[in-house]
Amino acid sequence: MSVLAHGVGSRHDLPLPLDLVLQGAAVALLASFLALGLLWTKPRFTPLVLPEPAGRWIVRAVVAAGLPFVPGAAWPHVVFVLLWVGFAVLSMLFGPVWRVLNPLRLVVLVARGRRYPERLGHWPAAVTLLAFTWVELVEPHALPWFLVGYAALNLAGGWVFGASWFANADGFEVYSSLLGRLSPVRGNPFRVLAATPPAPGLVAVVAVCLGSTAFDSIGGTPTWARLSPVPDWLGLVLTVLLVAGSYQLATRGFAAALAPTLVPIVAGYVVAHYYSLLVVEGQRAAALLLRIDLTPDETLVAPLVVSSVQIGAVLVGHLLGVVAAHDRTLGLLPKADQVTAQVPLLVLMVVYTAGGLALLFAP
Q1: What are the sequence ranges of the domains in the chain?
Q2: CB neighbours (10 Å) of residue 211?
Q3: How far is CA 213 from CA 4, 7, 57, 352, in A?
Q4: Of 147, 177, 294, 355, which is most buried by a Cβ count within 10 Å?
């Protein structure tokens, strides 16, 4: 689906040499870790539990009523650009947007209200997100089938379990809600992240978000092209498993408790990876919805602008993740282990940062 291509695409777009950028990013993470270890010796972010946004049934009804009027040609842009990327950015700024707008939540009005099984946690959401990223990256023509399956699954789950189904099992809502914890207008993001329940499947959700973004970059490299007999779906799954496995290895028994500290990194990669897509194809999505002819303005996607946004987003996301992980670790581990236990996670974050930047600007 070439119309939805994104990213800078080549190393020469960098405002600085790639090796210098990678060295600078590694030094910034190491310096921040050392400074935190010396100066930040007690937890500072007490968990802040925010109330669920009030039901916007009229808004959801309006969204539902408007869906039949979406032109057929606009659906890929509505889903891949506005829903997947646009709502993610809006959630970072204002909170869980999809929870407020989700028209499928209307089924809660007639729900049976059974108790949602705690053991399921976010696993249904992780599977939904993996299926969606498969559609996005491997088989975009399967989008109609995915949307039908997504709607049927969530209408059934919402009818049986009510609002708790959407909060735990709806992939797009879990994704939007996690990024919404970074919203500065709803409270201190670090405190809100610290209040994230370590539900089963939370690590899987984060791994899908990071792994799918990484594979999107990997899949466009000449190295992957030389591995053409390997199917893309297998590459996607293996990349997600690699992210999940390396994180579990670095955090050992604290993977679920520390998983929310990866949300800033997810947000950084969303901005870095999809910035040019959102700016250019977002304009085209609006034109398709309004049924007007429009040539997108590409002023904000000049190579220097895009590469600067990408470097800044990745680095800021990782630095915020280091701060969040450090503070969280102080509350989980005994004093003697607080610094040494963070070293494997720091190494992993350096690898993620260097690997992410290298993939974004790979030739």
Answers
A1: 11-360
A2: 23
A3: 14, 11, 33, 12
A4: 177
